[in-house]
Amino acid sequence: MNGGAGAGAHGGARAGAGAAAEARTVFLVGIDVDSMGGSQRVLHTLAQGFGERGHRTELIGIRPSPEPYRYHADPAYRHTTLYPAPAAPLRPARSLTERLGPARLLEHRVRRAERDRARARLAARFATARRGYVIIGSPWAVDWLSAVDRPQLKGIGQYHESFAQARASANLRLILRHYPGLEKALFLSEGDAADFRRQRLPNAAVMPNPLPFTAPAPAPLDTRRIGAVGRLEEIKRLDRLIDAFAEIAPARPGWELHLFGDGPLEPELRGRAARLGCAERVVFRGSVRDMAAAYRELSVLALTSEREGRPMAVAEAAACGVPAVSFDLSDGVRELVADGRTGRLVRPGDQEAFTAALRELLADDALRERFGRAAREHVAPLALPAVLDRWEALFDEIDR
Question: Which superkingdom does the taxonomy of this entry point to (predicted)?
Fold first, then answer.
């Protein structure tokens, strides 16, 4: 998406037909905003939505992606990258002498100079605005804002995972250190916001991620395809899904498992499917640009991750009328999947219960259709126009 190796701006802002009554300046900032991923898609979706409403919008990535993905063919926002190229890892030092030697000191000096130039670019972009807002897409990006003078811009922090995920990582420390100084700290579910408020973060509030597309018609749910969407990596635990499918498959001829996404575990997952005798019915689809069309090919969505915040794949599938079977991983998952109404939730890690829930949906066409209709209605408030309305109301609240 960057269109070249150098740092700079990409694309031009254009006002859409539904321009905002009051045009605002909105910056969105993340570490890597151009890789293919859920949080990156959210930032591009918001930037496009703000731009089409007539807001002066700029998406700023601190570092370029080694594998950039083009989210919008005709972006309605300016796009800037602060560093000119992906950072090369520091060479491992073989000895204390090498670690403290002139070559290593020079390497650190070069990196500091690159960082200073990147911060100067950020300050220059912020200086173009008389007043406005900075939406920070990651706790790791807040240090950059604290190093740049921006008195005319009001900071809003986002966190795209659950409180439990923050607590299990350095993110909780970063959020509690930096987010109290922002106008708002936004989380994906009321349960997560409440947990952060209990950690003495009084500005915690809720803002859902918007759906990146509108599905004009629901999926027919007659394709006999189970789908999973996401990187093929350890945290997604797709081995569990292949195991469940292998157990069900002999009694369900014609059904297939389709895995959407790339990742390092593809060879291992292919081997697992082969060992379990279902390789011909497990289809690795890779990265797919038109995910709305991909969801409409499915009859059931499956989520077997080790942890999730508020998984966009579940919301996107629901928008297409596809019910989900998932482990009950977080408040965000529970807000998207109403057990027994829009899909099935089972206790985390309970492989037997997950397999039984998946088997139930494969066996009952009427149940899938009922869950699918309810799921589509359930996520209607996540449509982009509705979420943009909430953002504009938040801007009004902050300005009062």
Answer: Bacteria
Q: In what order do the strands lie in the sheet with 324-327?
A: 282-286, 256-260, 225-229, 300-303, 324-327, 343-346
Residue 87: the pLDDT is: 62
Distance (Å, whole) CA 269 – CA 397: 49
**Is the Cβ–Cβ distance between 292 and 320 less than 8 Å?**
yes
For 261-270, the pLDDT digits (tens) are 999 999 999 9
Pair 37, 45: CB distance under 8 Å: no
All domains in the chain, ordered by first residue: 8-87+112-210+383-399 (3.40.50.2000), 225-382 (3.40.50.2000)
Bridge partners for 158 per DSSP: 186
Share of the chain above pLDDT 70, in %: 90
Which alpha helices (H) appear in the chain, and where do they start and end?
A: 38-52, 96-99, 102-126, 142-146, 163-167, 171-178, 190-198, 238-248, 266-275, 291-296, 312-319, 331-336, 351-363, 365-378, 384-399
Task: State residue 79's pLDDT score.
Answer: 96
Q: What is the pTM of this model?
A: 0.84
pLDDT score for 16? 44
User: What digits encode the pLDDT tens for the residues 122-162?
Assistant: 999 999 898 999 999 999 998 888 778 888 999 999 999 99
**Residue 29: what are its φ and ψ, rounded to 5°?**
-125, 135
208: Cβ contacts below 8 Å, ≥ 6 apart? 188, 310, 381, 382, 387, 390
- Whether residue 236 contacts residue 205, with contact meaning beta carbons closer than 8 Å, is answered with no
Length of the chain: 400
